[in-house]
Amino acid sequence: MIVRWLNKLEETIFCALLVAMVFLVCVEVFYRFVLAEGISWAQEGSLYLSGWFVLFGVSWGVKHGTHIGVDVLVKKLPRGGRRIVTLVALAVCLTYCGLLLVGSFQYLSLTRMIGIELQDIPIPKWQATLILPIGMGLLVLRFVELGWRVIKGDADSFGFSDEGQESMRLAEQRDPADYDKEGRP
Questions:
Q1: How far is Cα 110 from Cα 116, in angstroms, rounded to an integer?
Q2: Are 107 and 132 in contact (CB under 8 A)?
Q3: What is the pTM for the complete model shown?
Q4: How far apart are CA 51 and CA 56, in angstroms?
Q5: Is Transport set as a keyword in this record (predicted)?
Q6: Any idea what DSSP says for residue 177?
């Protein structure tokens, strides 16, 4: 139940960040090109919004298997071999996340202690970069969830998106009568 609530919260924040980022950039473009004056904090705001969006998106991508990956050799292994390779890869990923988590806490505590503010927005930098441990924490959660599914036998790999296979599926669905000799609609 907690994980389901966290999933919903994560997706809601993910969508809100995307909307806020697009809105801010559109307003800035309007101000700059129509009113001939910019918003002083728009660039920094959109930069931090995109950082938050990316770090929320990384864990979302692991959850939904939308990251690209090179798994040509792993796909050729039997199911048991894929599970072992996936568990080893997850251990490496969790180690990396642990290092980033520790580093992000050190960075946040240092910026909080020094009292640095953002350049154009009057808020403490540690608050703007709070996504670093949050994003890494969510990523750790997704890797642990995937590891548990691999151990239980419900999954045997990261489930990367396969663009080649998806392109072939879409090509098979199209009606040749709708296209000219060069393949244009």
A1: 9
A2: yes
A3: 0.78
A4: 9
A5: yes
A6: G
